[in-house]
């Protein structure tokens, strides 16, 4: 246990001393009154529903509902405009452009690298092992005094697997920067969330999203869970009204229907098993990787040709065939039973034409 992590040591100095923008809604938080403080339109909106008032900058009501679901205090929750926003804000909070580095473990989600590149932050890549696990020794060997963030995606996109607990623990203990565990697909696995370890590891940050299990990709809301100190920093550097009023309304409604989310997840898990079985029975499929997410990574004899054929059939999957360690693979999102049947029928048709049996 060599960890001597201190948030103030890795924050960029100007972020630490920054005075945030103070909005009208920060300075007066009451709900009733004559509001002449924010230069809003007093008559209403051009739309049927009124959106003339600025939304709650800290999403108080949503956090009240979310906190018990995640078994964490509201002061340790940050909501962003998609997960993309906390990914961007974390990079900005700790990485000095032109100097600092982050570590990613390909094949993985693309946004960590894009965000670093936008900020002129160097990305050091440590490939996953051939069974898609973290190469802990190689990751720790790649750490330098300029390494500020290690990005871990679990369950990982596009490989679908969960990263071993001991590997993540070892990185948390031996690295004095932020360790971000992106759990966008946590609802599709039995593996527990890292949220429960936040007390134990001050350098741990957990990301989740409303885009997948909750079916709310269109409203763009991502969750970030971390120490009170780090959440305070993210709140300080975020755009003041980063979650729109329609998004907040949809979320409040959605959080009343956890049972609907659970039913959709159960259906997706059932379809995942059935789609996996059907794919495994096709001659043109070499391998279906086990999945703890809402997609399958599938290796084909000729991924490119299958991809082109499916596009002709207006079935769109994600081509990962040129990604290192995913050679020959397509990533297929679990659809409805009907959509999955359409996919399988299409692949059978392709097989009859192209594969000598
Ligand atoms: C889909 C996905 C997200 C979600 O991104 P949003 O911006 O919240 O929609 C985050 N991380 C990973 C790894 C994903 O695959």
UniProtKB/TrEMBL annotation:
Co-factor requirement: pyridoxal 5'-phosphate
PROSITE patterns per UniProt: AA_TRANSFER_CLASS_2
Annotated pathway: Lipid metabolism; Amino-acid biosynthesis; L-histidine biosynthesis; L-histidine from 5-phospho-alpha-D-ribose 1-diphosphate: step 7/9
Catalytic activity, EC: 2.6.1.9
Domain of life according to the entry: Bacteria
Swiss-Prot/TrEMBL GO biological process terms: L-histidine biosynthetic process
InterPro entries: Aminotrans_II_pyridoxalP_BS, Aminotransferase_I/II_large, HisP_aminotrans, PyrdxlP-dep_Trfase, PyrdxlP-dep_Trfase_major, PyrdxlP-dep_Trfase_small
Residue span(s) of domain Aminotransferase class I/classII large: 49-347
Keywords: Amino-acid biosynthesis, Aminotransferase, Histidine biosynthesis, Pyridoxal phosphate, Transferase
EC top class, as a word: transferase
Gene3D superfamilies noted in UniProt: Aspartate Aminotransferase, domain 1, Type I PLP-dependent aspartate aminotransferase-like (Major domain)
Modification type N6-(pyridoxal phosphate)lysine: residues: 212
Pfam families according to UniProt: Aminotran_1_2
Cited NCBIfam families: hisC
Oligomer status and interactors: Homodimer.
Name of the molecule in the record: Histidinol-phosphate aminotransferase
The species this protein was found in: Dyadobacter sediminis
């Amino acid at each position: 246990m060599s960890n001597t992590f201190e948030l103030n040591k890795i924050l960029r100095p100007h972020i630490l001393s920054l005075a945030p923008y103070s909005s009208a809604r920060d300075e007066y938080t009451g709900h009733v009154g004559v509001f002449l403080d924010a230069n809003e339109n007093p008559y209403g909106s051009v739309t049927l529903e009124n959106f003339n008032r600025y939304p709650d900058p800290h999403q108080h009501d949503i956090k009240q509902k979310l906190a018990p679901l995640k078994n964490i205090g509201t002061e340790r929750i940050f909501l962003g405009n998609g997960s993309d926003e906390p990914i961007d804000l974390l990079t900005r909070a700790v990485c000095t452009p032109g100097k600092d580095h982050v570590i990613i473990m390909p094949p993985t989600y693309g946004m960590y690298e894009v965000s670093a590149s936008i900020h002129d932050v160097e990305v050091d890549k440590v490939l996953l092992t051939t069974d898609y696990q973290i190469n802990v020794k190689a990751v720790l060997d790649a750490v330098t005094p300029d390494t500020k963030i290690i990005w871990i995606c679990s369950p990982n996109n596009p490989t679908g697997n969960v990263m071993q607990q001991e590997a993540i623990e070892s990185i948390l203990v031996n690295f004095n920067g932020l360790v971000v565990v992106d759990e966008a697909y946590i609802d599709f696995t039995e593996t527990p969330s890292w949220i429960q370890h936040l007390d134990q590891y001050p350098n741990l940050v957990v990301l989740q999203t409303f885009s997948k299990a909750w079916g709310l990709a269109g409203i763009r809301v991502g969750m970030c869970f971390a120490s009170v100190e780090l959440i305070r920093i993210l709140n300080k550097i975020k755009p003041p009204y980063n979650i729109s009023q329609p998004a907040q309304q949809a979320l409040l409604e959605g959080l009343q229907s956890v049972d609907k989310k659970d039913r959709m997840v159960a259906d997706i898990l059932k379809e995942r098993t059935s789609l996996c079985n059907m794919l495994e029975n096709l001659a043109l499929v070499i391998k279906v990787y086990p999945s703890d997410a809402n997609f399958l990574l599938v290796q084909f004899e000729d991924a490119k040709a299958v991809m082109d054929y499916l596009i002709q059939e207006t079935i769109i999957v994600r081509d990962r065939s040129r990604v290192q360690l995913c050679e020959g693979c397509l990533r297929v999102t679990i659809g409805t039973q009907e959509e999955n049947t359409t996919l399988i029928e299409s692949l059978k048709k392709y097989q009859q034409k192209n594969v000598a049996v």
